Amino acid sequence: MSSKQDPFADLEYFNKTDAKDITWAHAVNSKAKLNEFLETDILMFEGDVLMRYNRNDTDPIMAHPPANDSDLTLQIFLKSLKPTRKGIKLDFKTIMAVAPAMLLLKSVYDTTDKPLWLNADILKGPGSNSGSNPPVDANDFITTCTNTYPDATLSLGWTTGWYEGISNAGYTQDMVDEMERICRNTTQIITFPIRAIYVRQSWVPLKWLLDTSSRYTLTIWSAVDDNVKVEDLVWLTKQIDKRRLYLDLPPELDDAFRKALASKGVVVSSLGSTASLMFASLVSLIVKYQF
């Protein structure tokens, strides 16, 4: 069994050699969605963690702002996935939820080889509101996660925005320099969630960041209404070790990307048939794809 300090341990857990073959269930923030996705062959389950009613004297729940209540608690979410071969990604929208969630995670999963990812936007990135601060403090998040669950993968991102018809600058060297300074003294595996619309124009600084440590990977994501060029994603696959590039895309973009790869003779695994049908049925319900 690979060490959790091995950046490819999660791939080994799923018996994969290509990070593009990892499939994702998003916004698993209700019992109905949890039960629905448990019937599929999707590998990683992502949910958003908040404190109920945004109060620190309540329990952690699975909900995305502006919602502040849910029928699915974090405890039920974690316990339901424990007997499965599914991985877990917890997305934190506020620092308030981090410490209670980490204690609960430790109580349910004292030790496990299951992939556990802890995500938060800790820095301001391209297109983000100039007057706002990231919702989760970088030092508090990393320290709390590290002290409580040091074997988890940290997913450390930037707040971003993208606007049709407006010149949108990408990730700058200053942005990745700041991230590198934050991460250099950590020991965990770290993945950096990168908005797909910016990846090609930002490749020089992103490649520099990736090359600063063998512990680092990239997770490429997109909003539904971003005008991502499929050829940019195909280009990206040629720039990076396939074990270090996760692609977490909306269903239609993911399908177009895999077809483009196949047309160039690249063999990739597609979503399982059950998962594909599930995702297709959800597309019409998604107003805005959230990472």
Automatic annotation (TrEMBL):
GO cellular component, one term: extracellular space
Domain of life of the organism encoding this protein: Eukaryota
Spans through the membrane: none
Residue span, Menorin-like domain: 18-253
InterPro entries: Menorin_dom
PANTHER family linked: CONSERVED PLASMA MEMBRANE PROTEIN (PTHR21184:SF6), MENORIN (DENDRITIC BRANCHING PROTEIN) (PTHR21184)
Similarity remark: Belongs to the menorin family.
UniProt-recorded name of the protein: Menorin-like domain-containing protein
Naturally occurring in which organism (per UniProt): Paramuricea clavata
